[in-house]
Write a structure and sequence with these properties.
The chain has 1 helix and 17 strands. By secondary structure, it is mainly beta. The strands form 5 sheets. Strands 9-16-10-13-14-15-17 form a 7-stranded antiparallel β-sheet, with no helix packed on it. It is globular, with a radius of gyration of 22 Å.
Amino acid sequence: MSVRKLKPITPAQRFRVVNGFDSITIDKPEKSLLSPRKRTGGRNNKGKMTARHIGGGHKKRYRIIDFKRNKFGVEAEVKSIEYDPNRSAFIALTEYTDGEKRYIIAQSGLKVGQKISSGDGIDPEVGNALFLSEIPLGTIISCIELVPGKGAVIARSAGAFAQLMARDGKFATVKMPSGETRMILITCMASIGVVSNSDHQLLVSGKAGRSRWLGRRPRTRPVAMNPVDHPMGGGEGRASGGHPRSRNGIPAKGFRTRSKTKSSNKFIIERRKK
């Protein structure tokens, strides 16, 4: 994985940093694993805007990803590493020995032709999916389930990973990407390795138009608004805006919004750092 800095032949390209895509092996997706993705423009079923800063953007089709990895004991071969417009990570097209094809989140180091599998009694190698009960302690993992059989929900974005710290009874202790340490049932599954495309954080758009291609509309700074529009609006001249807070008045930058009575609080050993 690498990034490229473009020659400044236009003002927009002077600061632009793009992905090298050197690990991508094919530019056409598998048709049988595509589905339509309709845009909402941030509107609900009555046409009212309920989410701001959404609209426009290039047309996309959704790639159906196998987050469950529940085809146990059947070996699959990695056919290609592909770009996915719906996520920051790259995806891998795998073909099982029975002929079925599935997309998975590609781990860093996954190669075309590599054999991967999931389930009991397999080696903890990059790309394989195992139960937390079978993964060696200290292993770097990603695509982690929180509810057994429901599919991966943790550490799925580009460059994300967690670490298996300990096991005690029916729970495993996992250090999350945020720094939080948490207990997860050992019957949950996780993939071995770091999620691909770790250079994603180094990309620079270069111009406002590229945000529009991605479906993001302009965002007005709260301090530039009037008091009727935002708690941080108003004031004479360039007023600082007061304490940072959301449009609804909820404080930002350090204010904890997690419920103190949430039932899953008992599984959190250490909260993430501020």
